[in-house]
Amino acid sequence: MTPEQFTRAWHALVSRWETLAADDRKAADGLLADAVRNGLPSHAGDALPEPEAEVLLACEIEVIRRARAMKPRRYARANKELKVLRDEQMDPVEHFCRIGWRWLRSPRPDFDVWWYWSEHLDPTHDAINPLLFHVLVGRRAGLPTAPPRVAPRTGVLPPASGPRRICLYAAYDADGIVDDYVLHYLRELSRHADVYYLADGVMPHTELAKLAEVTVAAWSIPHARYDFGSFSLLATELVGWETIDQYDELMFANDSCYLLRSLDETFARMDARAADWWGMQATKMDFSRHEGHLAPVPLDEGKRFHTELEDWNPHYRMHLSSYFLTFRRPVVADPGFRRRLGAVVSQGHKELVILKYEIGLSDYLIKAGFDFETFVPDLYPFHPLYSADYFELVARGFPLLKRNFIGENVGTPDLGRWKERVLAQVPDAPVELFERNLHRVAPADKLDRTSRVHTQLNGLVDFQRRLNKKEFRVESRVSPRFDHWWAFPVAPGEPSLTGNERAIFEEVRHDPSIRKIVLTRSRTVDLTGENVVTVPLDSRAGQELLARAGQVFVRHSVDLTFPWELDMDQHRVIDVGAGLPRPRANGEQHPLSPSPTAVRRGRARPERHVVVTTSALDAMPVETRDGVSPGLEVWATGQPRHAFLLRPEEQLPADLRAELADLRALLAGRRLVLWLPAGGTRIPGLGGTETAALADWARRTGTVVGVRSNADGHLFTDLDPLLLMPRRFPDVEVLFREADLLVTDNSHYLADFLLTGDPVVVLDGADAEPELPGPVCRTGADLVPALERALAARTPDEVERYTRCRDHLVGPADDGAAHRVVEQVRRASLSDPAAPPTVRVPNGRRPATA
C-alpha cells in the first residue's frame, strides 16, 4: 500500500470510527480491533473529506494502544528530560503520536522511526506516523522496523596517484556578500578539489563574481533547507550525479568555519587511512563529562560505545559533523546514500535538520557497514569544537575554527582572549579576518557575553549569570526608580535603534540631565552623547539598568519587547510604535488592548501607559477608539520618525548620512524603485515573462529594483536587484529619501513615503484603503504599465488625490514630534500623582545612584 493509498484508507477508517463512536462505542472499538488484527482495509471509492485533526489523533492513539505497539513506561523513562513526561502531564502514547514521532523519538528500542520513514514511506512528507503505518500495514507485509546490524567492511584507500575530489560548498550570508574569510578558505580548498558553491539566499552578481578564481561554478538560491539543502540541490540538480561520478571523492564543506592553516596535512593524513568516508571528528552526545566520561578515548573504542539512550533518541547516536566530510566511491555509489541526499526538504526547526540529515546520514552509513575515520583520532567528551578541548586540538594540527565557538558560546571561559590563544598555536592565522566577520554577523549580545565569561583569580568561572524571570520581577519591583533615566530598547527584529525611538533619543542625546539607556540586541549600536550608556538587553547590566528606568520607550508592548515581566507600577511605558490609529479588521486584536499573554497572566491593565499617535483619541473614528483600554493616555504629537524624512540632510544623524552615502554609491546614478510589500504578499501572475519585461524596462530607463528580503530578491533574480537588507540599511527612512518610487501594500510604509511627495504604486489590497494615491497593480501583467503611469507627470486630479491620501493617512506632519513627546514626558514626570515606590534593598545590595 502506497502512502497515498494509506492516507485515503486511513481517513475512511477514521470517519467510520467517528460515526460509530457517536452511537455505539462497542462497535467503534470492534472496528479498530479488526483493523489492528487484519490490517487496514483499502478504500476504493472517492476520497472522503479529511477528518478533523483531533479526531485523527484520537483514533491514532487508540489504534497504537490496542496494538500494544509501544513500551509506554520505558518511553517515558527514556525521555525523562521532557517535563510533560517526567511529571506525567501527558500520556506516553499520546506524546508519541502528537509530538514524539515527528522528533524521531523511538516508541520502543527496536523501532527506528527515521530509518523506517526513509525506507518505507516518503521522507519528504510528514503526514503519516510511521508506527501507525506499521501497525496497520507494515507488520502484515513483514517490513523491518530497524536496519539490520552489518559489521563494518574494510574501508578503501584513494588512488595512490592522489584522488580527484569534488567539493560541494554550502554558504549563507545574512548580508548577501562573499566574505573575505570565505575566499581565504576556498582558495585553499580549491588546491585540493573542484569546488561548487551554493549560497542559501540571494547574492548580487558582483558578489558571486568574486568566486570565479576559486570555484568551478557558483549559485545563490533561497531554499531555507540549511547546509544539507545546498548539498542536495548541488548533487541532484545543479552539478548532478553524472558529474560527481567522474571523481574519486565527494566532499561536503560549509562556511561555518574559519581556516587556520593549510589543508595539506589534513589530506595527507586521511589519504593514508582506509575508510569509506571520513570527517574531522566524531561526536556522541551521551559520551560527556556529565555522564562521567572525563577524557577522550581512541576512536575504535568510541565506535563500540553504546547506551540505551541512542535506541530511543537519535540525538545520542554517533555522527560526523557536516562542516567537513569526505565520501569515497563505495558510499557515493550507494543508492541509499543518494536517495537520502535527494530527499532533503525544509524543516520547521533547525534541530530537525540535524537529526534527520546530519545524524541521520551518519547513522545510516554506520549501520550499513560503511567504515569511517576521523582526522582527530579520539572520541572526545561532548563536542570538542565547542569546549575548552578545542585548543588542544589546534595544538595537534586541527585546521579549522568554528565561528559559533567564539560567537555564541557562554560555556567556555576566557574566549575573550581567543585571538591570543589561536596565535600561540598558529602564528600566521589571519585572526583579524575572522574577527571582522564575527563583528559583522555574530549576535552582538551573545558575543559580548561570551567574551566576558572568565576564570577568576580564585579559579572559579564567572559565567555572567543573568536574572531569571522571577528574580527580575523582584528586581523591577524593589529597585529605586529614576524618572530621568530613559530606557530605549531596540525593538524585536530590528538590528539597531530605529524609527520613533531613535528620533526621541536624538532629541535628548546631548541633554546631560537625562540618562539615556540604549538596550541592544543582535547588533552593536554605537550611539554617543551626554550621559548615554549602551548595554545588551540580555545581560545582567541591562536588566539592572532597565529595572531603575522611570521612562521606557517601546514599540507596541512590554510583552513583545522584553523576555521578562516588567512591574508596570514602577515604570511609565510609552508605546511609540502604534503609529497610525487604524480600525480593526473583523476578529483582529485591538493594537492598544492587552495582549493574549497579558490576559493569560491575569493582568487587567494594558501593557503600556501612553501611546504616541498622529490623532487625538477624540478625533479617532469610533471603531478605532472602541477597545482602547480605559486609563490609557494618548499623546497626539505626530510621529517623531518623520523628522528623518523632512529635515535637511545635513541635520540627520551621522550614521543615517553614512547610510545615504552608501546607498548612493550602490545606485551609481540609477533610479531606485523600492519594492516593499507586506510580508508574504505575492502578486498573481508575476512569473518569468513579467519579470523579463520588468528587467527590460529597468535597463531602458536606468532603473534598479531595491528589495528588503531574500524572498523578494529571489523573485527578481534576473534583474540583479539591490539587496537593501535591514542589517545594512536599518533605517527605512533613508531608503524613502532616496527612492524615486515605492511599490507597497502596507499603509504604514505608504503613509511615511507620501511625505516625500514621490510617486507610489499600490499593490492590490493596501489594507483596504478607500482611496489610493497612485496606480494599482493587481497582477504581474499590471506591474510595468503601473510603474510607467506612476512616473509620468501627474494630472491635477491625481495631485489632489495624492494630497487627500496623505492628509488621511498622516495628517499635519512636521519635524517637531520628537520635541513634543519629550516635553510631554517632562510634564508627566513633574505631575505624576503616584507616590514613589517603597524601596526594599536586600542584604548585600546597594541601590544605584542617579
UniProtKB/TrEMBL annotation:
InterPro entries reported in the protein's UniProt record: RgpF, TagF_C, TagF_N
Pfam family, one: RgpF
Organism: Nocardioides kongjuensis
Stretches for region Disordered: 582-607, 827-850
Protein name, entry field: Uncharacterized protein
